[in-house]
Design a protein that fits this description.
Elements (H helix, E strand, L loop, with lengths): L2 H8 E9 L2 E9 L5 E12 L5 E11 L3 H19 L15 H7 L22
Antiparallel strand pairs: 1-2, 2-3, 3-4
Length: 129
């Protein structure tokens, strides 16, 4: 049996969520023992300077024994974000009049220098989640 046939046989149920440059694939697959698990794949499109493009993919595997804890924490985190910031998207991409905090300070005549400390953070973008 070829690899493609194994992949087709392994996928049980799939859904796709398109979100701008990102696409999320939710796939139910079967283990060799016949049990089911979930894979969530984020695929992000990047355009090269020559106009060609490529995709970067990140995948997580979620097994039944982790569903309850994962769902609980995911719901807690999403509820926190909506409670704190509302459902309206706040980003440069979604609002033409959006200003970064240091730009607001400059336009309001604030002479204090605003310094962003990124030493302990990674470059993570959650705009499309």
């Amino acid at each position: 049996m070829s690899d493609n046939e194994m992949m087709d046989k392994e996928e049980i149920f799939s859904k796709v969520l398109r979100a701008g440059r990102r696409t999320y694939f939710f796939d139910v697959r079967a283990t060799k023992a016949g049990d089911y698990y979930l894979t969530v794949t984020e695929s992000k499109k990047f355009t090269n300077d020559d106009g060609s493009f490529h995709y970067k993919k990140h995948k997580i595997y979620l097994y039944k024994e982790d569903f309850a804890g994962f769902t609980e924490i995911l719901n807690e985190m999403t509820d926190f974000i909506v409670d704190e910031k509302g459902e309206e998207v706040i980003s440069e991409r979604h609002q033409k009049d959006f200003q970064k905090s240091y730009e607001k300070d400059e336009t309001e005549g604030n002479t204090e220098e605003v310094v962003a400390s990124t030493g302990s953070f990674t470059d993570v973008n959650f705009d499309d989640i």
